[in-house]
Amino acid sequence: MDLKSLTRIASTPSVGLTHHRVAPARIVIQCVSRNDSTNVNTNSSPANVGSGQVGRARHDWQSACAILASKVVSSEQQDTEKSNGGAEGISAVNGHPTLDLVPVNNPSSSPAPLPKPLSIADLSPSPMHGAQLRVAYQGVPGAYSEAAAGKAYPNCEAIPCDQFEVAFQAVELWIADRAVLPVENSLGGSIHRNYDLLLRHRLHIVGEVQLPVHHCLLSLPGVRKEYLTRVISHPQALSQCEHTLTKMGLTVAREAVDDTAGAAEYIALNNLRDTAAIASARAAELYGLQILADGIQDDSGNVTRFVMLAREPIIPRTDRPFKTSIVFAHDKGTSVLFKVLSAFAFRNISLTKIESRPHRNRPIRLVDDANVGTAKHFEYMFYVDFEASMAEVRAQNALAEVQEFTSFLRVLGSYPMDMTPWTPSSSNGD
């Protein structure tokens, strides 16, 4: 086959196939290529393409065009390597753009090493338990949450957050390694906001710590109790010291602020000599305040329970007491609660807490009765803590049975119980 009779040189630098309908009985196919003076006859005309020299089958001219395209690619590669040192390739073949190739350097030239990609270890190291962990807590320095973070992770780097949700986000965004947040108080009850956030975020409970609360009445140096016109603190701190303040004769206004240590900081920054704060002794030391009264909580057994949160759960064990926290719901309302509780009672698993919160996605369930009418029932999510490890078979079987009765079940964490002894705080109200 004469390949030269199949080619026609065009001024266009790309490679492609074009079709020109000359007559109803004949189609002229031209293979347009870059100029190759060594292999192409520039005197060829399109008329020769339709002659009998082309071949008697369609695959003849397809093969010819493929061979010609390979010659063009080879020629262009040689020209490009001479001009650019092989850094760039052919831009188009047969009219279709080609992918850019990554140049391969010669190993003998000792190229500079590529930058190492970041890994999880680069973003946040995984230190040993309690060794230079970054722990987020809600409040300012001097808050009880900071003391709980120091008890849970000694020598940690405590990171204050202005809101509970910010502490959750700090762990999720790798700004902190852990978060220590309160969930319940022996006098004030549950901190509902954090229970809602536990369900909204995907962090895991990896531990708990119980902190005795020791309230103090703080003021600027030199201020006497008779000069006070108001007392500020967290709402729960105000309620926990209400009777003691009345016994002290402080018939003053009581205003709620975001946190206890924040109240002490506010007095120090604004030089308020008519205002006292209920906070910890450490807050008095940090902000230069004096302690007017020590241990003003109404009950000496005032304890707050904090949970430690992490991005990954810990592996449950059976060599020490463990606690497991779950949350569940059911489409048929609260009638399932008895069946869930029986699953734990049958296996002799003790429950330490039951908390109900409104089901935000389905707050009300309507039940239609043709005789009575439409009944409206509130829907709830149930939070349960029980004394067992998920490594125990009885706990696994209990949750398997609970799952049969519920439409939603999530294990918030299985973690060691806080077994450290504590001494009740002294109180001036006795």
Automatic annotation (TrEMBL):
Domain of life: Eukaryota
Enzyme class: lyase
Localization, UniProt: Plastid, Chloroplast stroma
GO CC annotation: chloroplast stroma
Domain Prephenate dehydratase span(s) in chain numbering: 134-311
InterPro entries: ACT-like_dom_sf, ACT_dom, Preph_deHydtase, Preph_deHydtase_CS
UniProt-listed SUPFAM superfamilies: ACT-like (SSF55021), Periplasmic binding protein-like II (SSF53850)
EC number of this enzyme: 4.2.1.91
Residue segments, region Disordered: 75-113
Any one GO MF annotation of this record: arogenate dehydratase activity
Role description: Converts the prephenate produced from the shikimate-chorismate pathway into phenylalanine.
Record PANTHER family: PREPHENATE DEHYDRATASE P PROTEIN (PTHR21022), PREPHENATE DEHYDRATASE-RELATED (PTHR21022:SF19)
Protein name listed in UniProt: Arogenate dehydratase
UniProt source species: Penstemon smallii
